[in-house]
Amino acid sequence: MAWISFPDLKPTYFVKEALFSLAAAVGKPLHLDMATINKTRPSCARVKVQVNLLFDFPKYVEMEIINEMTMETRMERVKIQYDMLPKYCKQCKVQGHEEETCRSLHPELRQIEINKDKDIIQEQKGSNNEEQGNEFATTGRRVIKRH
Ligand SMILES: [Zn+2]
């Protein structure tokens, strides 16, 4: 079970049917939270979903919007935010950590644990891609890059 939010949602989506079809991209929609039902928090809608932790969780849902006047369709991206998703590692098949912080998938994280008292963590050779930096950023690790 997890709560997902749709931040900055357009008012047109602020009905149960629309929110449930958005949430279906993640799992089985169960119910809306009170603020969403009563529309007391128009900036953000929340839906409780039954999720399968083995699935990948999309960051966006693509919605096809049909203009009934012209019958033209366009795609709209709706951002999904995960509020209380239990951490689950598909590699180790245990709860408590994710693949991003998995030490059997990322042996270099052990290195960072060892070096965490130091302020400067040396980048590994040939791994100066941004992706790795972002990965650490999302797991809350402090990475100081040398220039
Ligand atoms: Zn793991």
UniProtKB/TrEMBL annotation:
Renumbered to this chain, region (Disordered) spans: 124-147
Per its UniProt record, what InterPro entries does this chain match? At4g02000-like
Ranges of Polar residues compositional bias?
124-137
> Domain of life, per the record?
Eukaryota
What is the recorded name of this protein?
DUF4283 domain-containing protein
Q: Which organism is it from?
A: Solanum pinnatisectum
